Amino acid sequence: MNELRPLVGTTVIDVTSSLAGPTATQLLAALGADVVKVEPLAGDHARAWGPPFVDGKGAMFLAANSGKRSLAVELGDDRGREIVLRLADRADVFLQSLRPGAAERHGLGAAELRARNPRLVYCSIGAFGAGGPLSDQPGYDPLLQAASGIMSVTGEDGRPPARVGVSLIDLGTGVWAALGVLAALHERERTGTGRTLELSLYETGLSLLATQLVGYLGAGVVPGREGSAFPQIAPYQVFPTRDGDLMIVAGNDKLFAALCDALGVPELAADPRFLTNPDRVANRAKLVALLEERTRERESAELLETLVTAGVPASPVRDVGEAARHPQTEALGILQPLEDFVTVAAPLSADGERVRHHTGPPGLGAHTGEILRELGYAEDEIAALVSSDVVRLG
Question: What letter does residue 363 receive in the DSSP assignment?
Answer without folding.
Answer: P
